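A reminder before we start the practical. When you read a complex entry, don't treat the lines as separate problems. The point of joint prediction is that each chain is placed relative to the others, so the output describes one connected object in space. Small molecules and nucleic acid strands, if listed, are placed in the same frame. In the example below there are two entries. Take a minute to note the order of the lines before looking further.
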Amino acid sequence: MNEELNKELEELAPSLSKLTKEHFDAPEGYFNTFSSRLLDRIKNEQVAPQTPTIISIVPWKKYLMAASVFIFMGTSMYVFKLNHTQVSVSNNADSQSMVDVYLSEIDEATLIEFSNTNNTKDEKSDIDVYQSYIDEQSIIDEL
Amino acid sequence: MRNQQSDQEILALFREEQTKTYAFELLVKKYEQKIYWLIRRYVNSHSDADDLMQEVFIKVWKGLINFREDSQLYTWLFRITYNECINFHRKNKQQLHVDIDDANESEFIDHTSDNPLTGEQIQRKLQSAIDTLPEKQKMVFHLKYYQEMKYEEMSELLGTSVGALKASFHIAVKKIEQYLAEH
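Here is the predicted structure of the whole assembly.
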């Protein structure tokens, strides 16, 4: 036993440090025959090494794969565009029908009031425009 | 002369179909004794050690072509051996418990008769103590106590830090000491 290990054991485990290690023997000639016995077993059982899987691409297959990808992408884009347009159209139609439904639910008085409010806003805006015109005219007169 | 081939040379020969078997034989010759003594301490019977040796080297034969040299060849061999030993121990745990019980009974008889234990009985007791350790502690104890391996080398083989290995060995030794005192 090396000194370092012996010291370590003496400190940690005095009983264990005093034990002599059991000595094992391999049967005589064991290592002379082991490799040949092992190779015989490998041969008899036909144990094959695991070969790494390699995927080879034949040149013409490359072009075929590229074409497939191109066709797939083209078809996908066409289908996507088609669906998108249909959705927009159907969305517009849906929106119009929704407006009609909502308007039918509102009573006439409310609608008139709403219309007047908007008109008032418009009038105000007209007044503003007119006011600005007067302002301009007064400036011109003063000049 | 044949054992002086480097790992790289052996691996290069193994990659060639014509020299594959020859290279494998070189590899077996180079490492069979190291692997055998590692297994022999662990399984404690030549017959089991021989079976395990064959299983280990068949796994090496199957997997060597995929060995990428990220680690030392012996580190890779050791890991295969270590896993095989643990699998073997798991499969035989039931049988092992029966053996330990038998051993304890015979030691008890010796104690009551006040006869000093024979060398063989002491070794059986030590073996019983080692068998109570968890797998990792057991392997660390084997590598340090029987193989007298340095912690640094062990660290590379087991992929564990030196500090953790030292702690593991100390705990294992303490447990064995306690077992020897109590039985």
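Discuss with your neighbour: Residues 155 and 164 of chain B are 9 Å apart (CA to CA). What might explain this?
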